Amino acid sequence: DVFKHQLASSSANDRLAANVVATMGRTKSDAVAPVLISATGLTHPIRIRTSAVNSLAEIALNDPSVNTALMNLLREDKPVLQVAAAHALRDRKATGAVSSLRSLAMATKSSDVRDAATDAADTIEGK
Fewer CB within 10 Å, N or C, the chain? Predict the structure, then answer.
């Protein structure tokens, strides 16, 4: 609850939220996944969201809600977030994300997003 409150609190340059996300990511504890998922929400600045996505790459690997949250981020029109989500799904070896990654690679105008999505799908499939 303390972390949730700090994540929602306003501070200069969102330092408090950034520190919360970084600390939670370093714990490598599956228990922090729900708070990190909430940190990927639209109410947070892009750098907080991206940091939360990066942390989700390594925790709660068997939690389908994490993969679902990351796949939802692939649909946002924020290339830096899409790239981070693709990398996180790759690192999680999220086999259920391959079709979403392939669709994103075909639909995007961003070469960075296309490359990340293609790499993620190929890596997950073992290509």
Answer: N
